[in-house]
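Notebook p. 47: complex prediction with S-adenosylmethionine.
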Amino acid sequence: MYDFYLGGSHNFAADRQLAARTIEAWPDVAHLCQANRAFLRRAVTHLAVIGVDQFLDLGSGIPTAGNVHEVVHAINPNARVVYVDADAVAIAHSTALLAHVPGATAVYADLRDADAVLSNPRVAGFLDLSRPVALLMFASLPFVPDEDDPAGIVAAYRDETVCGSYLALSHGTSDYRPDAVRRVEDVYTRASHTMRLRTRDAIGAMMAGYELLDPGLVDIIHWRPEPQSPPDPLGGDVTRYSMLAGVGRR
Ligand SMILES: C[S@@+](CC[C@H](N)C(=O)[O-])C[C@H]1O[C@@H](n2cnc3c(N)ncnc32)[C@H](O)[C@@H]1O
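Predicted complex, structure tokens below:
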């Protein structure tokens, strides 16, 4: 469904049917997915520029324009990127794309089990967790239900990383348009994963133990926008994105 919103071609009829219902409930969904990808690029660029050279992308999705390894390798060709997703199609496409990319790999795993992910031989063999690593959780935690304790999951990863590691996170918020959010959440009850948008406080709790880089946890289009960016397609109305983003240092 996310691939469809982004205008990709790796989607099936069932995805498109359900995605059409999301678009009815939230007509701006394509813009917010693009804003999420733009934040990914800005955050990952910043981390690579300040010297982070290991990235663990949790809930990485189907490859699309501006993948993490492409952004990172343009700055540091020796950096390492591990993609993790529980969607077999996403991992199959990622694996094919990375066949001749020595600095990146894709692993099929459930991000909710931090111990299993971090001890997975493909992850442990690729990243050196005795050195700083950037954890990337772009629009993946909404697919973790409350009963699985998303903040606890992030904390489990945090505690396995050394000081000087980073967390970059984006997450839809229910604060601005609760009725439309409920309609979207209802569409996702028919999808393979349910989706839960959360309050600013709940999203902020996921970043506990991290010192937030400026400007903090903010509306996604306000996280270090680039001066050369084209005008905002939604006129800067953050409620139409309803997505928060932040980067923190452990
Ligand atoms: C909206 S997409 C975001 C993709 C990418 N991070 C981005 O921001 O462009 C969410 C991704 O999270 C993945 N995901 C959801 N729950 C997951 C889980 N428990 N373990 C691993 N991946 C998961 C989905 O399969 C999907 O690919």
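Notes: The longest helix spans residues 29-49. The chain has one domain: 2-249.
Next step: compare against the earlier run before touching the bench.
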